[in-house]
Design brief:
Layout: E1 2-12, E2 18-29, E3 34-38, H1 45-52, E4 60-69, E5 72-73, H2 79-85, E6 91-94, H3 108-119, H4 125-138, H5 155-166, E7 173-177, H6 185-200, E8 206-210, H7 214-218, E9 223-228, E10 231-237, H8 238-243, H9 248-255, H10 297-301, E11 307-310, E12 318-321, H11 327-336
Parallel strand pairs: 3-8, 3-9, 6-7, 7-8
Antiparallel strand pairs: 1-2, 1-4, 4-5, 9-10, 10-12, 11-12
């Protein structure tokens, strides 16, 4: 469904300095599957979301790599072609603070008309209204929302409305960047249920869910991928990533979060010391080495490849991690702590 090969993108600052925010990311997500992306603030999660759409505008710039959606390579396409042929139909994107994306002076139905007319200028207003009414009803949103302005909706309702609008054209891939942030627990639950319904009812065929909360991803996604300093440091099934992390950063990330799951919630909170590297001048070796208590001089001088190991969860599936230590050595170290 979506395959990304060695994607590299950068920001160019006012001083003409390059910031390598996404550096050699590869991933694959099959139809019917959901992938979670986790990591601390500034690790490149949101930049990856923007980059995956193939739609670039300053200060974000494409460097190299392939983005393949359903067999079609969208990397390198002209921005206008991406906007008309990809966004909304192939890939839909829900940005952070999406509830603020709605025009406060426009009714929701007018916003939907604008979205659909980009792809189908001839579609009548009646057909658009009927489509929106049916889709909103299926997703548990009342019809009267279509005739309201954004200021008349609560935060949770606005977020659910934005999600419904983003998926009105039934995109193949939905990329959701922190869709439940800034919401109360009840609203978060409704948003997550709505996104599950989109998958179950076939309105979207696969999903990438971005957040800094690993426990949330455990209950929402099939697989989890952890980013650090613009690179993927580990990927596995949701259960493996929460209960059997391999990379020291993933281990530290899990140790710094309150997890209600049995078997993990008894662990004490542990802070990760130090700060991420400056991506204007990324280090030669492992990017986590300065903060890793297991690092050796080799870690700081040698480029670290992505290693594959058999998954315990599914025969034929390989999980990946970026560390010079072997799995056997990692588990020995963790067990002796």
């Amino acid at each position: 469904m979506l395959e990304v090969k060695n994607l590299k993108t950068k920001y160019v600052t006012r001083l003409r300095e390059d910031v390598f925010a996404v550096d050699g990311v590869s991933l694959k997500i099959e139809e019917g599957k959901s992938l979670g992306v986790a990591g601390e603030s500034g690790c490149g999660k949101s930049t990856l979301a923007l980059s995956l759409m193939g739609y670039y505008f300053a200060p974000l710039h494409y460097i190299s790599g392939d983005i393949i959606v359903d067999g079609n390579n969208i990397s390198g396409m002209k921005p206008d072609d991406v906007r008309r042929k990809v966004l909304g139909t192939e890939i839909a994107y829900i940005p952070q603070a999406a509830m603020n994306a709605l025009n406060p002076t426009q009714k929701i139905i007018r916003f939907i008309e604008d979205v659909i007319h980009v792809h189908d200028p001839k579609m009548s207003k009646k057909d658009i209204y009927d489509l929106a009414k049916e889709r909103f009803a299926i997703l548990g949103l009342p019809e009267e929302v279509l005739q309201k302005h954004a200021v008349e909706l609560s935060g949770g309702m606005k977020q659910r409305t934005v999600i419904a609008i983003s998926t009105i054209l039934s995109p193949k891939v939905l990329i959701a960047d922190e869709p439940s942030s800034a919401l109360d627990v009840t609203s978060q639950k409704m948003v997550i249920k709505m996104m599950r319904d989109l998958m179950d009812k076939g309105f979207i065929r696969s999903m990438i869910f971005i957040t800094h909360e690993l426990p949330l991803l455990y209950n929402v996604t099939d697989d989890i991928m952890v980013m650090y300093a613009g690179q993927i440091v580990e990927r596995g099934t949701a259960k493996e990533m929460v209960f059997d992390p391999l990379h020291p950063y993933t281990k530290g990330l899990m140790g710094s979060i309150i997890v209600p799951e049995e078997g993990v919630r008894e662990n004490k909170l542990i802070a990760i010391p130090g700060t991420p590297p400056n991506l204007k001048h990324p280090p030669k070796g492992c990017r986590f080495a300065d903060r890793c208590k297991y690092a050796t001089p080799t870690c700081m001088s040698m480029e670290v490849p992505n290693l594959e190991v058999p998954s315990k969860e599914n025969d034929g599936y390989n999980r990946e991690y970026r560390c010079l230590m072997s799995v056997r050595k990692i588990r020995e170290v963790y067990e002796n702590e």
